[in-house]
Amino acid sequence: MSSSYSVPNLVLDEIDKTILSMLHENSRVSYTDIAKEVDLSRVAVQMRINNLTEKGVIEKFTTVINPTKIGIHVSAFFNVEVEPQYLEEVAAKLAEEHSVTSLYHMTGPSKLHMHGIFEDNHEMEKFMTEKMYPLRGVVSVDCQILIKRYKSRMGMKL
């Protein structure tokens, strides 16, 4: 069995996995620091990262902001049941909302699973009553407010 992980049309070797792991831990790590770890030149590391980006393995580099540090205190998960013929329309409208951080189509009868963040309960209620409930095709909404975060994973860790 090969030690490489296969992605359609792409094989990640141990060097790629190490590079991805280091970037996942700290996307600001320098090419030089990565090069020292994987025993390649800085230019070779840069070429590998560019290739991983071009192939779509690396989708983007980002900054993760702690919402409570900037006054956003309500984190909520929603299960939204939608009439099947309106699923794409509702998903597109919800995806445009600034407070929606993730949105997925889940198994089950036309279920959308969504995460949103809000300054307070009043802002969440306003979002629900003015933005979500009026959407054509929304049948029901189940909301659960996050009490405590133990782990949050951004992307995939190898």
Number of domains: 2
The CATH topology name of the largest domain reads Alpha-Beta Plaits
Biggest sheet statistics: 4 strands, antiparallel
Task: Count all strands and give the number.
Answer: 6
- Arrangement of strands in the largest sheet: 4-5-3-6
Tell me the name of the CATH homologous superfamily of the largest domain. Answer: Lrp/AsnC effector binding domain/regulation of amino acid metabolism (RAM) domain
Q: Structural class of the secondary elements?
A: alpha+beta
Q: Indicate the mean pLDDT.
A: 89
How much is the radius of gyration in Å?
Answer: 20 Å
Order of helices and strands: EEHHHEHEEHE
Note the total helix count. Answer: 5
Beta-strand content: 15-25%
